Amino acid sequence: MKIPSRTAAVLAVACLVLAGCSKDAPTGTPPAGSGPGGVGVDLPRADSDFWNAYARYVPEKAAEAGVELVSTTNSQNNVQTLISNVDSMVTQGARAIVMAPQDTGAIGPKLDELAGRGIPVISVDTRPDTGQVYMVVRADNRAYGTRACEFLGEELGGRGKVVEFQGSLSSVNGRDRSEAFKECMGTRFPDITVFEEPTDWEGGRAQAALETRLATDPDLKGVYMQAGGVFLDPTLQVLKQRGLLVPPTDPRHIVIVSNDGIPQELDAIRKGEIDATVSQPADDYAGIGLHWARRALAGERPAPGPTDHGSTVVELPNGFEDQLPAPLVTRDNVDDPALWGNGSGS
């Protein structure tokens, strides 16, 4: 049926005012008008309070967005399992995939394969190094490292010893946080000694590293945990065992800044056990990720610029990235109801 020219013009204007909409579907996206489709979601791991919270948000946000979940799997921090899970979801009828690849280098070939088959991929929290993606939904991880550095540096008056629990350096998040933290410390606080401890996002490795460091450097004054979801409990256990889990008013207090914004971190800030965290939004990672999956299935092409949900889309060499805000949380704003860690879904 031919659409009247006046109606077509109105539809065209409506598309342009919709944030990120374009008349041309991107590579790897079903053409507009091809009908609804199901979405497959792979969860990256089950040993992190942050990712467990994200998992709880997924079905809730899918219902809100009107997205059909074909399947939800868990790749347990293993890229080969992720690839197998994706293949299974596609076989079950998934026409778009939401994933959070922890090894951001190894997933590239699978992403290109999916793009070639017309199956758009939304990558949550991590930005793949290579491989075509429809959208990355992610906060600025370099800002995490910089904010942690600035907080620790100012709290310590620019002097002292700090241990840093680095995430996996095969992940863009681990690299971004580590590089930004190091650059900031070297430039702004050269009198602070930083002990970099690789952990591969494993709490046990962080715990062992802290025990060793406190034995060799008992005058340690700060800790940067790149992921509170896996590092918080082990860190607090070590400090408690050594009689160092004391309030900020005690001169023995070790200043701790974290990343994630899970409810447990917020409670630890209230208790004076840790001092700050950068809150990455588990609720928005789920909601905005599924939002982009729905738009991909509708055949829309993202466009750089501000969104209608308070973020900014930027173009990448291999797709687009929706950069979500991630606030620093301290004693001053820990009770803010806008923080996802204070919400009922957390």
From TrEMBL:
Matches recorded under PROSITE patterns: PROKAR_LIPOPROTEIN
Predominant location: other
Kinase among keywords: no
Signal peptide (residue range): 1-19
Signal listed as a keyword: yes
InterPro entries from the UniProt entry: Peripla_BP_I, SBP_2_dom
Localisation per UniProt entry: Cell envelope
Region described as Disordered: 299-346
Family, per entry: Belongs to the bacterial solute-binding protein 2 family.
PANTHER family with a match to the protein in the record: D-ALLOSE-BINDING PERIPLASMIC PROTEIN-RELATED (PTHR46847)
Protein's recorded name: Sugar ABC transporter substrate-binding protein
Organism this protein belongs to: Saccharothrix lopnurensis
